[in-house]
Amino acid sequence: MPLDPSQAAKILECTPFSIRKLLRKGKLKGKKDSKGKWSIQPSDLEAFIQRKAFTVSEWAERTGYHPETIRRWLRQNIIPGEKDGQWIATSIGRKLKKTKKK
Q1: Sign of dihedral through CA atoms 84, 71, 46, 15?
Q2: 15-32, pLDDT tens digit by residue?
Q3: Confidence (pTM)
């Protein structure tokens, strides 16, 4: 059964807005119906999760953290990655999520 962006967001621990942005950019596979509503096959979401490497921008989109924060964590080896012209995070933990400022 297909998922809507809200359901996918709960699985990825991000916002529905982030999911729709990934869908529009083609980074997450999905389809729009005749009413303009997105649907995502569970297998497509799983394929997205299983990707082995993410750019700093992709990681920032998925988590809501600022790209400079991700770069700093990569430099400090807080998250694993490698630099070959630009940073690539090679292992993304789904448990890490942004907390709201009070």
Answers
A1: negative
A2: 888 889 889 988 889 999
A3: 0.55
